[in-house]
Structures are given as C-alpha cells and as structure tokens.
Amino acid sequence: MIFLDSEKSIQLDDDFECSSIGEIKELKPNFFEIGFKPEILPDWFQDFLDEHFDGAGVPKEYSFCVRANNLSDTEQTITLRFLFSPAGRQYLAPHHWIKKFGAWTWADATSDDRDYVDIKINLAPKEQVWVASAPLEEPDEVVRKCIELADYFDFLTYREIGRSEQGRPIPVLETPER
C-alpha cells in the first residue's frame, strides 16, 4: 500500500520487506493515523492464547514498520499515530524506533496512550525514514550478516533450514555438537 497525503508531499508505504501496517488515514495536515495489521490465527492457537495469555500475543498486531518519505523541497514535521489492538497493546511499551541514514535510534513519542502512540518526526527535504516498533533488519541483510559471522568465526557454520512462506531463506548459525 502506498499512501500520498492531500498536499502530495508526504508518502507513507509498506511496499518493502519487514513492513507491517494496516489502514492509513490523514487526520489533519502532516498528522497520520496508522492501523495495526490484523493477523488471522488458527483456532487452536487462538484458544491457546485465550487460555494462557488472556488472548494477547499476536505478533503482527503488536509490531509495526512503515516507511515515510518527504517528497517536497522543504523540511517537514509529521506525526504518525500507531493504533494498537486490544491483544497487542501490552507488548508495545516504549521505546519505538526510527531508521535515519541507515542507523536505528529511539524515536521520540509525543503521546503514549494504551490505545496508540504518537511519534513526531522531522524530515529533511527528500528524506526517507523507517519507523518501527523494533529495529528491524531486511531479510537479505540478516543472511549477509550470518554468512559474515560464519566466515569470521571458525566455530560457526551457516546453513538454511528452509524457506519462509514468502520464499525467503531461513538462516541458522550453528556450533559443533559438544
């Protein structure tokens, strides 16, 4: 999904690996509400969560990751409001994260309610950032780092144990049996 604001100067999207967002609404200029992405669970798993965790613990409903782009030639300040599901809200205690210039840092939450968090972001002209509930690595980067570690340390070996539903490798680092 790609969302373009009414002024055509801010673009929000989930068109990348690791993204996780629901519906986007522009509440007012430079203030956007982002819903959580519902996760469909098998009945047996939902029954388990209901019995042992009061229904909480649905990963996609408590994680978020969105990309924000300033398409204009001027600096802009935006606020992103991330909504939490009833099951996911207890998992989203601060800190939240922003990725600028390739590095993750803590994001400043201007409001931290049980139902949502507001995160204010200053964007330079043409700047792109990621905002997330946790610092995420793209799948290719995880594989690259695993291979690099296995090459560096004699006691580690790298292998792939399968493929994800999306066709991505599932990497593991292993040590020799003891």
Per CATH, which architecture of the largest domain? Sandwich
CATH class of the largest domain: Mainly Beta
Neighbour order of strands in the largest sheet? 1-2-5-11-7-8
Mean pLDDT across every amino acid position: 84
In CATH, the topology of the largest domain is named Immunoglobulin-like
**In angstroms, what is the radius of gyration?**
19 Å
Query: Any idea what the shape is?
Result: globular
Beta content:
35-45%
What is the number of strand segments? 13
Show unreliable segments. Answer: none
Structure commentary:
- The chain has 178 residues and is of the alpha+beta class.
- It has 2 domains: 2-132, Immunoglobulin-like; 139-174, no CATH class.
- Helix content is 16%, strand content 39%.
- It is built from 3 helices and 13 strands.
- The longest helix is centred in the last third of the chain and has 14 residues, at 139-152.
How do the strands and helices of this protein lay out in sequence?
Elements: E1 2-4, E2 10-13, E3 24-28, E4 31-34, H1 43-53, H2 59-62, E5 65-70, E6 76-83, E7 96-100, E8 103-107, E9 109-112, E10 116-123, E11 128-132, H3 139-152, E12 157-163, E13 169-174
Parallel strand pairs: 4-6
Antiparallel strand pairs: 1-2, 2-5, 3-4, 5-11, 6-10, 7-8, 7-11, 9-10, 12-13
